[in-house]
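Weekly structure sync - notes
Attendees: PM, LS, DV (DV joined late)
Agenda: review two folding runs queued last week.

Item 1: First target. Sequence and structure tokens pasted below for the record.
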Amino acid sequence: MEAPPPSSDPYKFLNITLNSDGSLTRHREFPKLPPTEQSKDIPLNQTNNTFIRIFKPRNIPPESKLPILVYFHGGGFILYSAASAPFHESCTKMADRLQTIILSVEYRLAPEHRLPAAYEDAVEAVLWLRDQARGTINGGDCDTWLKDGVDFSKCFVMGSSSGGNIVYNVALRVVDTDLSPVKIQGLIMNQAFFGGVEPSDSESRLKDDKICPLPATHLLWSLCLPDGVDRDHVYSNPIKSSGPQEKEKMGRFPSTLINGYGGDPLVDRQRHVAEMLKARGVHVETRFDKDGFHACELFDGNKAKALYETVEAFMKSCSSTGPSPNM
């Protein structure tokens, strides 16, 4: 008798149980790692139990001013943490490889905190960075890792999977906000998590994918979207549901990098988002590797190396052309 496909029981596949009070029991997660000499945790909102894990490179050249990368981890909005081992280790490597200060944001998870809670936490992290740059936190004291060692005019916002979705939605929310002296020069959406009621071609073709089977992604959306809406809600399907106001705002996004893999069921939606932004006049760079699967860079060193090289080249190109006048 053949084993059932991975999509046969999405709760079992995701190792979660939905409790009667609407919360989740998460049965198996990645181990959480404490900060190291290269990282430290800064409280963001103690009421919401959110924080920022700051990563710095080793061997920083003296007198250097490093760029900043605000990072949002993946997990379908319901799983994982900035302290989860794969994301902690990835940010440590990126800080070294990119010679960048990384701010990895611990945001609230659904279904205990449905969207837009994660977006609100992400915006709060961006505003925290702005206030650090302005010296308006804790009586004017800027964090010592940021005070003298970063260039606030070279800021990038990056996310993977659900974190890539957060990047898009944060940009919509801060495009009209005065962030000076912080300048967001670029957005980086890595394998961004978007959805819709009608399956895309790649979702249909890869419906029994071992990482993102279609019933599991449908369950993720049902657990994280606001009560009473479907997958065509603007949070998950901006292509179908964006109104005139959202379309006008996305036209003012800074340069955007969209990265994806041919073996990811979500890849067609990532392509469609790239096309949507290009149609609004955004400078969009895309890298779609024929090989690879969802989150492959967390487990495949060669894929991670290629991603870091792509991100590094994008950051350098943005820095050479200057920041968007709107962000």
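Item 2: Second target, run right after the first with the same settings.
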Amino acid sequence: MAPKEPLVISSKDEMRKWSRAMRCQGKVIGLVPTMGYLHEGHLSLVREAHKHANVIAVSIYVNPGQFSPNEDLSTYPSDFDGDIQKLMSVPGGVDVVFHPHNLYDYGIDKKNSNVAIEGGKMVSCIDQGGFGHETWVRVENLEKGLCGNSRPVFFRGVATIVTKLFNIVEPDVAFFGKKDYQQWRIIQRMVRDLDFSIKIVGCEITRENDGLAMSSRNVRLSTKDRQNALSINKSLLKAKSAAEDGEVHCEKLRNLVLQCITEAGGQIDYAEIVDQENLEKVKFINGPVVLCVAAWFGKVRLIDNMEINLKLDLRK
């Protein structure tokens, strides 16, 4: 059977028409939101979507709303034609790719366009005044801490663009990778709090054969930095093993991670053990937690995490 070539839609109205036509046929619609430059991790989300939905939409859109002024939007890698070929390689493929040009352009004030060029860099300018975009979605507590410390506008941008995609694509179920653990929990909470009739499925981290968590940013690592970055997964495994052996003091587990990564030349952004649901820091493991890490290797910031689910004897 020949690979299925997806329908490519760029118009919001056309996307809604497609989804509503599918729903009229009784189809369950799955959505896999992405920023493109797809890798095996993204494709694993598509394969998972086939287990839950009759038709699948993949969005490819680099969202300027989650980039701060000091982050160069133009450096985010892209390969749209390659992405289409990768999606066609998945058994069953996908039905539609939603690839809008600009989800913040309302055709009112052309001075407040999606991006601007400053100092040779493409930067987001959607916060400017006039009739530009000014409505944002925030999940106030969950967005604090972890990635929220060093990227203060990131989750505001994520929650807003996902809300827009949900309103445009109108899916029944949506799929998010758990590598971006804080993002996944934020979307879950947003869907609950705003009464979206959408099921959110969190999918396990996909790793390279050597343990490095798959990321579109990995391509920017030098050979040396990529080798050193393996210390992230090694440190997580080391800490999880120590916890399973009885070490429940979180600071001691955290120090294992810090030592492993810094000895490999990494610069720690954060390494925290938090509750899996509310993402609050814990001092001792007495329930399901997740160890979350962000570290720089060279000029590339990588994130990873590992859930720790100990079988605790609560009778003690």
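Discussion on item 2: The helical segments are 12-24, 40-49, 80-89, 147-150, 154-169, 181-193, 223-244, 250-263.
Action: LS to circulate a short write-up before next sync.
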